Amino acid sequence: MYVNVPAPAACPGCQQPLRHVVLEGHYAKAVQVELCAACHLVWFDAFESVRLSGLGWVQLLRAMLQQPVSQAVLPPKMACVRCHSALVGVHNQTRFGHSAAMECRQGHGQLQTFTLLLAERGLLRAVLPVDRSSLAAEGRVFQCLQCGAADHAPQAKECVYCESPLLMVDVPRLASALLVRHGDVLQLEPDANPLALSCRGCGQSLNPTAQTQCPNCDHGVAWSDLASVRPLLDAVEPLLLAQQPREARPWGTRLRERQGDPRETQFYRFLKHANLVSPAQENASLHPEEAPPDLGWSTVWQLLVLVLVVLFTMATCRG
Ligand SMILES: [Zn+2]
Ligand SMILES: [Zn+2]
Ligand SMILES: [Zn+2]
Ligand SMILES: [Zn+2]
C-alpha cells in the first residue's frame, strides 16, 4: 500500500522526532498517526478518523508499548506539530463520558495523551476497591497509566504528578474492540476461548471478553499498566491476520454472473436511456420468476388501433 509520508515532525512534549505509524482503520482504510512513546502522546491530523479495526488497535497499542511507562513531564503549553501555534484544550463528550485533547486552532489536528485516547474510545474504566486488593495480592501497586506513578491516595481521581485521570484497562471492552476486522466481528466457535488468559491468582484459564473475575479463586482481573495488555495482543493478532473480508470474491465473478442477462446489451441500455423500459419490464428481467403478466407493447398498440377505429367510425357516421 502506498502511503504519503510527511517529514517527521517534532514531539510537542520533548521536541524529539515523532514516530509515524500507519494503522488499519475500518474496512482497511489507512489511518495515519504520529506518536511519541516517551511522552505518551499521539497526534492525529484533522479529519483523521480514529475508527480503528482490531488490527489497527493492536498496531497502535504495540507502538504505545515501546515505552510502557512514561517518565516525561509534559510542558504546560504545547504547540501544533504543523504550524507551531499554541494548542488549546478542548473537552469532548463521547458516549463513554468526557474526554480531553489539545487542538490546533487552524484545524491541523489534535494531540492526545495515551490515557485520554484510550478513555475516549471506552477502553478504560474507573478503579474499584476490589482492584486494589487484587493488585496487592499479586504484589503489584496501582499505577497511573500515563506516567506510572504509584503512590496515590485510595480515593484519588487524578494523578498528582501528571493530572491524568486514574483509570484501569477495561479488559472485556478492549478484548471486544480487538476482535473486529473488515467491519465484522471475528467469527469464532461458540465455545472457543481463543484469547484465553490465565488468572493471576490461580492460573485458571479465563475468557477476557467476558470474565472480570476468576470463577475458581475469585481473583479479579485488574490491569493498571499498559504492559498487561501485551499477552492479549499476542493472542489476538494471528486471528485478525487470518480474517478475510466477507465480500471478497475472485476477479470476474460478477462478469460471469451477468452473462446472458438481457440488461447487459447496448440495445437495452438505449431503451432505458429513452425511457422506453417500463418498471414492470425492468422487474421482469430482474426477477423472471416473479414477473407480473406482460402489459407491454402489443397491448398499447391494440388500444391505439381500437381508439383510431372508433374515431374513424364516428367521423364516417356523422358524414
Ligand atoms: Zn515526546
Ligand atoms: Zn496548526
Ligand atoms: Zn500520572
Ligand atoms: Zn483464579
Automatic annotation (TrEMBL):
A Gene Ontology molecular function term of the record: translation elongation factor activity
Q: Give a yes or no for keyword Protein biosynthesis in this entry.
A: yes
Q: Which domain of life is it from?
A: Bacteria
Which keywords does the record carry? Answer: Elongation factor, Protein biosynthesis
- Record-linked InterPro entries: Multihaem_cyt_sf
Q: Which SUPFAM superfamilies match?
A: Multiheme cytochromes
- Specify the protein name: Transcription elongation factor Elf1
